[in-house]
Amino acid sequence: MTYTFDDLKKDVAEGRIDTVLACLVDMQGRLMGKRFQAQYFVESAYEETHSCNYLLATDMEMETVSGYKSTSWAAGYGDYTMKPDLATLRKLPWLEGTALVLCDVLDHHTHAEVPHSPRAILKKQVKRLEALGLKAFMASELEFFLFDQSFDDARESGYRDLRLASGYNEDYHIFQTTKEEDVMRALRNGLQGACIPVENSKGEASPGQEEINVRYAEALTMADRHSIIKNATKEIAWQRGKSVTFLAKWNYTAAGSSSHIHQSLWSLDGKEAKFFDKDAKYGMSELMRNYVAGLLAHASEITYFLAPYINSYKRFVAGTFAPTKAIWSKDNRTAGYRLCGEGTKGIRIECRVGGSDLNPYLAMAALLAAGIAGIEEKLELEAPFVGDAYGGKDAREIPKTLRGATAALTESKMLREAFGDDVIDHYVRAAEWEQEEYDRRITDWEVARGFERA
What we know:
The protein is an alpha+beta fold and 454 residues long. The protein folds into 2 domains: 5-65 and 73-114, Glutamine synthetase, N-terminal domain (Ubiquitin-like (UB roll)); 124-445, Glutamine synthetase/guanido kinase, catalytic domain (Creatine Kinase, Chain A, domain 2, 2-Layer Sandwich), CATH 3.30.590.10. The protein has helices at residues 5-13, 38-45, 118-131, 151-156, 174-178, 181-193, 219-239, 286-297, 299-306, 360-376, 402-410, 413-419, 421-439, 444-450, and strands at residues 19-25, 31-37, 49-52, 79-84, 90-91, 98-107, 134-147, 198-203, 209-214, 217-218, 243-245, 259-267, 328-330, 337-340, 348-351. The strands form 2 sheets. Strands 7, 8, 9, 10, 11, 12, 13, 14 and 15 form a 9-stranded mixed β-sheet that branches. Strands 1, 2, 3, 4, 5 and 6 form a 6-stranded mixed β-sheet that branches. Strand 8 (198-203) and strand 9 (209-214) form a beta hairpin. Helix 6 (181-193) crosses helix 7 (219-239) and helix 11 runs antiparallel to helix 13 (421-439). One of its GO terms (biological process) is biogenic amine catabolic process.
């Protein structure tokens, strides 16, 4: 199921496509770019276009944040070159006459990939794996909440008194999810039509909470799919007067929203499951044991790329199916890393740490870097945890705050070697800025708690 540049040219010539979205993925995992008149795109812009280089040095509010080495007011905020990757080209059925292509971000002068761009970071780890004769397949399970109000109405209300799309826990609940089919059917069919093979959608553990699952793919392809899925979900909800949120923890009383990432390594031709050894305990090959040991040994260091915001850490609450311990266990949803597919070629490790707010390229790259470190160092895997990991004494903990995760990121020798010092320093600055912005804000909780009693 592919859509080629020749297909696009034919659709443009015959009047079916009149707009092409050329998008880069920013630090927050959002699509940023331009809407091209399709005829111009197929004649010229398919080769390259340009964007301001502040797009990879901003926060959620698109602030021109100080302290970045890569760009600044002093440097003049010049251009990046956006190079369309035509292998990502697809039609978007939910937008009339529209196609989309993702772009690599290149230095305007040298045309080398910008090293801190999310796609480049993941591509670098994929190449490291290829040098070892390996290929990564990944899948992300993406959760979100669906509301009856539009985005405009939600914003104008100050995000208070929002009405969820359903009134009670809808985990696997068919009648409840029938009420939401207007959005979810459109999302499933839209993604399928956009060359993203959908497996299913389901209700999740809180009222109004949804999950969308698509077929696993090579790491870069899966990250591309993930970023498009999030944008599609927002657009399709908006078209129907609804809103969604991918906040990791939108409400104190609700479950958090996750983005579990399943990982397995295969031969370069994709035919041999390198994680599987039928004669080994649980079916885990030595390679898999080394890889998982790497994930655990570097769990704190990679947490920032799985949980990049202040809010991300509000999700790590015992008894909510979000993990609090960075340990592995067999088919155990209380653990940060869960073994799935035991004893089969489908054996894989599921990282349950990441929230729905993560950037898929950065998260997958960090997981691969940690796993590669485990392989290269032949790390020994600890015994699996058994029982309720929330109560596990002396078990390795996930950092409890963004401040703690930032410190671990800053000091990570492994990630500095894998990504480069400049890349790590770039994202450390992003984390610091997020913390600085939060630290100087006054929250509703503080005012309600202390207005009269302080």
